[in-house]
Amino acid sequence: MEYFMRKDFDCQETGNNEMSDYFLEKLDDLRHECGFPFIVTSGYRDPSHSVEARKSKPGKHSKGIAADIRIRNGAEGYKIVSEAIKAGFTGIGVAKTFIHVDTRDSTPVIWCY
C-alpha cells in the first residue's frame, strides 16, 4: 500500500486486525484518485467491539471490508463519494463528518446517517 499502513485499521478496542487485503488495496486506490490525505476514523472492528456487539449480525467493519474516512468539508465528501462509486465500492454511507465505504457483495447501497 502506498498511503496506508495495516496498523491504521486496528480495532480501537482490541487491537485486532482482520482487514481484507483486497479492500485495503481498493481504499489505497481511492485515496490516490481523490488526491488528498485520508484520516481513517474506523477500520476493523472486532466482533466484541462495543458497536459491533450491539448488532444482531456482524457489520462490514467486523468483516474487514469497511472504513470510515473523516471529511473536513462537503467538497471532500463529494469527491470521496464520486470516486468511490467509480471505483466500485458497493456500500457508501454519508455523515456530516465522515464517509463510510465498503465492499459488500450484495446490491449496492448508499445511505445517510
Notes on the protein architecture:
The protein is of the alpha+beta class and 113 residues long. It contains 3 helices and 5 strands, in the order αβαβαβββ. The protein has a 5-stranded mixed sheet with strand order 1-2-4-3-5, with helices on one face. Strand 3 and strand 4 form a beta hairpin. Helix 1 crosses helix 3. It is globular, with a radius of gyration of 13 Å. The mean pLDDT is 95.
What's this model, at a glance?
With 113 residues, the chain is an alpha+beta fold.
Going by helix content, strand content and strand pairing, the class is alpha+beta
Task: Classify the beta-strand content into a percent band.
Answer: 15-25%
Enumerate how many helices there are, as a single number: 3
Shape: globular
Question: Roughly what percent helix?
Answer: 25-40%
Number of strands: 5
Give the rounded overall mean pLDDT. Answer: 95
Separation of termini? 29 Å
Structural Rg: 13 Å
Which ranges are low-confidence, i.e. pLDDT below 50, for 5 or more consecutive residues? none
Q: Biggest sheet, open or closed, and with what strands and sense?
A: 5 strands, mixed
Sheet with most strands: strand arrangement: 1-2-4-3-5
Oligomer class: single chain
Order of helices and strands: HEHEHEEE
Task: Break the fold down into its secondary structure elements and pairings.
Blueprint: H1 21-34, E1 40-42, H2 50-53, E2 66-70, H3 74-87, E3 91-94, E4 98-102, E5 109-112
Parallel strand pairs: 3-5
Antiparallel strand pairs: 1-2, 2-4, 3-4
Helix pairs in contact: 1-3
